[in-house]
Design brief:
With about 220 residues, this protein is an all-alpha fold. About 80% of the residues lie in helices and about 0% in strands. The two termini are about 45 Å apart.
């Protein structure tokens, strides 16, 4: 039943997109860009700044929708006759960056134990020097070069699939073929690189961290 419902929703959405796309451009841009842009600094701060905390995440999630609605529709940044698209998106990104930074700095940091555990598991690059010093040996950050290459491959894969699915609605089948071809090649390349970089030492390190986390959870349960 759930699969049938999903199929019917997809068909209905496709019909709306084909018949009413010109009247809904503002909403499409809002859903696919304006709502997402406010969360981009959240994704960056979470992995590149040790000071970022749960209050910053809550601020992004709680304030993202109302501020996006206000900027996009209240201030009429959806109107291409008065504002370029990048103006509204840039304003939302700047607001998010500022709000998340201020909220994070005026609220307590996460506990050092939590930060050290997170760092040992992910070994993120960026502003983690204070935590890296307490993480012990073997906790050097992941190499940035391969991470950037993997990110570009993932972006290319998503771009290809997005182009392909959008081209279906306008009947540009050569774009469908090229998009799916690009997305498939980039996705396979990314998966092969991801598995290739999983050395036995890295797997053993992950298992060790899982065992330590499980032991800590058991100790807390026994103490409580």
């Amino acid at each position: 039943m759930s699969r049938l419902t999903t199929l019917l929703l997809f068909v209905g959405a496709s019909v709306v997109a084909i018949l009413f796309v010109k009247q809904m451009i503002g909403w499409f841009m809002f859903i696919n860009a304006a709502m997402v842009i406010f969360l981009l600094p959240l994704s960056f701060f979470r992995f590149f700044w040790w000071r970022f905390n749960v209050w910053g995440e809550l601020a992004a999630i709680v304030l993202g929708l109302p501020l996006s609605v206000y900027v996009w529709f209240g201030l009429d940044y959806q109107n291409p006759k008065t504002h370029a698209t990048w103006e509204g998106l840039g304003l939302l990104f700047g607001l998010s960056f500022l709000i998340l930074t201020v909220v994070t700095l005026v609220t307590p940091a996460e506990s050092q134990e939590t930060l050290i555990t997170f760092y040992k598991r992910c070994r993120p690059p960026g502003l983690w020097g204070k935590i890296r010093g307490h993480a012990g040996p073997g906790s050097e950050p992941v190499a940035v070069g391969p991470m950037i290459i993997n990110s570009l491959l993932g972006i290319a894969a998503c771009l290809g699939l997005t182009i392909a699915t959008n081209a279906i609605f306008v009947g540009q089948w050569w774009k469908v073929a090229c998009g799916f071809g690009l997305g498939s090649v980039m996705a396979v390349w990314l998966i092969r690189r991801a598995f290739k970089t999983q050395t036995p030492e890295m797997i053993a390190h992950e298992l060790k961290l899982d065992h330590e986390a499980s032991s800590q959870s058991t100790d807390r349960a026994m103490l409580s």
